[in-house]
Design a protein that fits this description.
This protein is of the alpha/beta class and 326 residues long. The chain has two domains: 165 residues, 3-Layer(aba) Sandwich (Peroxisomal Thiolase, Chain A, domain 1); 148 residues, Peroxisomal Thiolase, Chain A, domain 1 (3-Layer(aba) Sandwich), CATH 3.40.47.10. Strands 1-7-6-4-5 form a five-stranded mixed sheet, sandwiched between helices. A four-stranded mixed sheet has the order 8-13-12-11, sandwiched between helices. Strands 2-3 form a two-stranded antiparallel ribbon. Helix 7 packs parallel to helix 8. The longest helix has 22 residues. The chain is globular and about 50 Å long. Bound molecules: oxa(dethia)-CoA. The site of oxa(dethia)-CoA has 18 residues, from helix 2, helix 6 and helix 7.
């Protein structure tokens, strides 16, 4: 399976660290040095489905596929204001696609999980051309009266179109239960039989624990996937890692002993956009011409669960229509 089109979309509203320091007990220097984040984009006037649609349309356009050529849509989304219908159902009609569609929740690893599922569909002939859209609004899970999580998370969408062909070599996806380190609980309706009134609990995160789990498990995934494909870290041209914290990515890079140039970052300007972070990064690098034909890429991510994922692929350059290439 290979990627033949990419797209991304971000909210217009740019929020700087100083703007947050205006109403939270935090500072630009704390956020920059502890996370690498300088600014982020947050939904204000747009909706998540609009961002998802824009990213998907750009991916479709660059893939040179028509909406009717798509025979499966997978959206990666942790939560949005609609519990049902799925985000993929919501965007399918306006996109002009008519095919099976589903959403998955793989937390920040959702994009790699979706690719892994798509790869199995393509291999078994269940589907040929698949649209994957990772669209997330984690800013809406945070407690904006507290500084712990609200300075980290941000909104955005990234999309790819995949089809048969040489590209992905291997995937690793793992799962485990660590509910306490990262969770967001939504209030459900009370029934005559279950009267336990639970309140919505905005995102709770044990930052240090997540940090340690992230570094340990991503290093394990990266080492395992390199070894079982007979590759060394040096043979990878670029590492597209989940964009949560620059220090997490630096720890993985230092373990591999590889140069900073191979570890592009977008959390500096976009914050942590959950499962959308890797496809947004991929789209921007591809459109800028940084990702070149034949480059070996390694993707790696971690997220609430605790889940992790990694993939290795050989990149095929995508030709973008110059007029729409912004
Ligand atoms: O997609 C997955 C999502 N999650 C993650 O990737 C999170 C992984 N963890 C992290 O990125 C880091 O643990 C954080 C950035 C969340 C926190 O950095 P840290 O270096 O682990 O800091 P800490 O939690 O140990 O807190 C150090 C200090 C504490 O104050 P005291 O106890 O030393 O007085 C915190 O209360 O920093 C304080 N602090 C803040 N100060 C200013 C915590 N958040 C903030 C803040 N601004 N926003």
């Amino acid at each position: 399976m290979k990627i033949i089109g990419t797209g991304s979309a971000l909210p217009e509203k740019v929020v700087t660290n100083d703007m947050l320091a205006g109403f939270l007990e935090t500072s630009d220097s704390w956020i920059r040095t502890r996370t690498g984040i300088e600014t982020r984009r947050l939904l204000s006037t747009e909706t998540l489905s609009e961002l998802a649609m824009t990213a998907a349309m750009k991916a479709l356009e660059s893939s040179k596929m028509k909406p009717e050529d798509i025979d499966y849509i997978i959206c990666s989304n942790v939560a949005n204001s609609y519990v049902t219908p799925s985000l993929s159902s919501i965007i399918m009609g306006p996109l002009g696609c008519k095919c099976p569609c589903t959403d998955i929740n793989g937390a920040c690893v959702g994009f790699i999980y979706a690719l892994d599922i798509a790869d199995a569909f393509v291999k078994t002939g269940k589907a040929k051309n698949i649209l994957i859209v990772a669209a997330e609004e984690p800013s809406r899970f945070c407690n904006w009266h507290e500084r712990e999580t609200s300075v980290l998370f941000a909104d955005g969408a990234g999309a790819v179109v995949v089809t048969e062909g040489e590209g992905f070599r291997d995937f690793i996806v793992t799962g485990d239960t660590h509910t306490d380190v990262l969770y967001y609980k939504r209030q459900m309706e009370v029934t005559p039989y279950d009267r336990v009134e639970e309140k919505t609990q905005p995102l709770v995160m044990q930052g240090r624990e997540v940090f340690k789990l992230a570094v340990r498990s991503c290093i394990k995934d990266v080492d395992t996937i390199l070894e079982r494909n007979g590759l060394t870290g040096k043979e990878i041209d670029m590492y597209l890692l989940h964009q949560a914290n620059k220090r997490i990515n630096d720890s993985i890079r230092e373990h591999l002993g590889e140069p900073e140039a191979k570890f592009p970052l977008n959390m500096t300007k976009y914050g942590n956009t959950s499962s959308a972070s890797i496809p947004i990064l991929m789209d921007e690098l591809s459109r800028e011409g940084v990702l070149k034909d034949g480059m070996k890429l390694l993707l790696s991510a971690f997220g609430g669960g605790f889940v992790t994922g990694a993939a290795i692929l050989d990149w095929s350059a995508i030709e973008y229509d110059k007029e729409n290439n912004e």
